[in-house]
């Protein structure tokens, strides 16, 4: 089995092959990029789902059909098309189609509620909405119809029409254009008309997508990313991790998220690779899909990795092709990485970090880094090769550490807020000049909200989010420092700490701890461990044990700390 896992060549060999394939950077729009890749890798599978697989060639034909339907609908260059869909091949085809039509894609989180969706549709100046009837348990066709009606009746809104894709046996409200009628419009548009629009709008520096990200305070902000930014970021991941031609990647992540788009779809597209995905992460289904499609790579977040490794079926699943694992979004302790290596038999593991503002990850650990580095850092700035910024050697970005309050640049090795500049970094937030001015300085550095340090080798260590810090009697506590200590206990699977109000000390720590299956641990043991490694004021006053199913998660499997704070408040009242 090990020989099969090593049949892909070393990472150095794969990186050399990529640099030979892409000796210089060709600036493309997403439509032009996929046109070229779909010609070269026409028969390769691009999107693989539990019950279907779509090749590059088939995806291109769908994208052209959807783009012609957009033109018939009335989509103009620069229009904003919001997409509220669960994972399906149509999602990718719509992204390519919107690029071909010269429109801007606005991916929406399918877990959002009415108020959130209303805000984003208005704030983004959405002209068109394409929605699934259902996404998971969310009945979007019903839930969004009043928003659609309000927007259409608002004379000041640019909103025009909503298209609904039925995916359940239920009637679609009349306010929507049906998917079938939308597609019929494609027949009335000549190929020459589409090619003319595509040529007229083929600008890699135009905004390709507005992707919303939640701020530490206030309402969500729409990050504007160009085609060139998205593709450069994807290529940097492809090169840093050494993607080989035809790499198959399992990513049970939502397509609206930059993690799926950048580390998966766009990165894989440079080598004719394919994405294996599903509607929502389920551990057993994940093992079945990884075996069915014999994936080479697994993109995960820690909560997914833990849940998958806890399934007894993992020992009996044929994962002979799997050799790579990228686990991001939150730090993972050494024991979890060891379990992954032992039980999945992966030979290339890594983690990373970034931000939507910088087109997903900007940092990745290197293949071959020791477990200690992978568990305590988020790596170095990605190698970008031909896609690099001319000022930064073979990198797309550079980082510095600033004082969060004064924005002064701090000396090397200092702890502070990380700020990033480069050719994959957004110009700002859509129609939010004040937030953009706060985040971005005159030199083009944008503040990340992450606290960290950069060592002499370039490795970046995160100390938490600036918004996650809390103060106990005036002393600042970074939750991650204490989380790392508690993770040292052999019975602990995951731990997250939040700050909660306290009458005596202003704030104090509240720890949520998930134990490994069959393991036991007491609150006293955790407090003793903390007292041995951190100052007394950092020891959490509250400790609650939780089950794996209790964690409040985002669509990408990240722990929602603000919800943990709400849960902590409820528990303290009891």
From TrEMBL:
GO terms for biological process: fatty acid metabolic process. One of its GO terms (molecular function) is medium-chain fatty acid-CoA ligase activity. Coiled coil: none annotated. Gene3D superfamilies: 3.30.300.30, N-terminal domain of ligase-like. Residues 34-430 form the AMP-dependent synthetase/ligase domain. The keyword Transcription does not apply. InterPro entries: AMP-bd_C (IPR025110), AMP-bd_C_sf (IPR045851), AMP-binding_CS (IPR020845), AMP-dep_synth/lig_dom (IPR000873), ANL_N_sf (IPR042099). Residues 481-558 form the AMP-binding enzyme C-terminal domain. It holds the Pfam family AMP-binding. Keywords: Ligase. Belongs to the ATP-dependent AMP-binding enzyme family. This is Long-chain-fatty-acid--CoA ligase. It comes from Oceanobacillus oncorhynchi. The lineage of its organism: Bacteria, Bacillati, Bacillota, Bacilli, Bacillales. The gene is lcfB_1.
